[in-house]
Write a structure and sequence with these properties.
By secondary structure, the chain is mostly helical. Helices cover 75% and strands 0% of the residues. The chain has six helices and no strands.
Length: 163
């Protein structure tokens, strides 16, 4: 039963990822992304990591997908406009592969942060102290970057509407 539950949850995640790849409509793409993220949360639960599963659901499914939906609702003013054409480009794929290689090379030597749990301390408290201590500036920078990106998209789309 253990292997069956893993493969069922993995199948849900793979189906969501496949939907992201082949969807032409933006809303279906977001639904596929939500399915994928929920599948990953299910895998976290399957491997007895409820804190990661809850974080996945609250942060990514609840936060990032809501941000995507907000951006789409803010940008989609004219329903007659065609959506973006989905085309494969060797140049874009090469650039993405190059960026991936640079990131893997840069992160190869970075060790995982270890959490030292003493006898009287809860593991969740230790992870929370690590996230709200040493890694807090990184989370704040990523949040600010997402906000700046959303404002830039809105400014660019407003500039296109004036033409």
């Amino acid at each position: 039963m253990s292997a069956v539950s893993f493969w069922l949850i993995a199948l849900v995640a793979i189906a969501g990822a496949w939907t992201v790849l082949v969807a032409r409509e933006t809303i279906r793409l977001i639904a596929g992304l939500g399915t994928f993220l929920l599948g990953i949360a299910g895998l976290y639960l399957r491997f007895a990591m409820p804190l990661l599963a809850a974080s996945q659901v609250f942060l990514y499914v609840g936060g990032v997908l809501a941000l995507f939906l907000f951006a789409i609702m803010a940008l989609r003013r004219d329903e007659d406009r065609a959506g973006p054409a989905v085309r494969f480009s060797v140049v874009h794929a090469s650039v993405a592969a190059g960026i991936f290689a640079v990131l893997v090379t840069a992160l190869r030597d970075v060790g995982a942060a270890s959490v030292d749990v003493t006898a009287g301390q809860d593991a969740v408290d230790a992870v929370g102290a690590l996230l709200l201590g040493r890694f807090l500036p990184a989370f704040e920078l990523v949040g600010g970057l997402l906000f700046v990106a959303l404002v830039a998209v809105l400014a660019i789309s407003a500039g296109e509407d004036r033409r």
